[in-house]
Amino acid sequence: MSAHQDHPHLEKERSIGYLVHEVARLFRRRFEDEARIHGVTLPQWRALAEIHRSEGISQVSLAGCIDTDPMTLSGILDRLERRGLIERYPDPNDSRAKLARLTPEGTRLVSTARNVGRELYENALSGLSPAERDSVAAGLIRIRDNLNNMAAAEKAAEKEAV
């Protein structure tokens, strides 16, 4: 008897993890394909969207939001600024820091990105009823929260060990 026959639930759990990975990879790939049509990379799309959400965001905060390092972000913002999609200006509270905001052209591109994202999302969820969509979302939220709680518990254990 094979290992997965001994524990059939393990096969299902492995397939959930695999499917989450594959769905995320395919969402990213499809969105990258669309982004390329508009002449931007996925990290640039992410930066534009976050700047739109938080106008006047600092570069340090923005790097954290899009999960990149400040040096990489600086290059991303340089390219966006050269294209006229964002403008950077000094932080009035910290002369060493720069803040970013969208230009009108950047705002138009974010609007296009939202429409592309909405269409991609709807195509991906085609055929799922509202109840099925709610169920998938609830399951993924639970998985995410469980993983976040594991990380928090590990950090707390590390502090206690010190």
Draw up the topology in text.
Blueprint: H1 3-6, H2 8-37, H3 42-53, E1 57-58, H4 59-65, H5 70-82, E2 86-91, E3 94-102, H6 104-124, H7 130-161
What does this structure look like?
By secondary structure, the protein is mainly alpha-helical. It contains seven helices and three strands. α2 runs antiparallel to α6, α3 (about 40-55) packs across α5 and α3 (about 40-55) crosses α6. The termini are far apart. The relative contact order is 0.09.
The multimeric state of the shown protein is: single chain
- The secondary-structure class comes to mainly alpha
Per DSSP E runs of 2 or more residues, the count of β-strands stands at 3
What's the shape? flat
Beginning-to-end CA distance, first to last residue:
45 Å
Which radius of gyration do the C-alpha atoms yield? 20 Å
Residues in β-strands, percent: 5-15%
| Poorly predicted residue ranges | none
Order of helices and strands: HHHEHHEEHH
Secondary structure tally, helices: 7
What brief labels describe this structure?
single chain; 162 residues; mainly alpha; 3-stranded antiparallel β-sheet; 7 helices; 3 strands; flat
Task: Sum this structure up briefly.
The chain has seven helices and three strands, in the order H-H-H-E-H-H-E-E-H-H. With 162 residues, it is mainly alpha-helical. The model has no long low-confidence stretch (mean pLDDT 88).
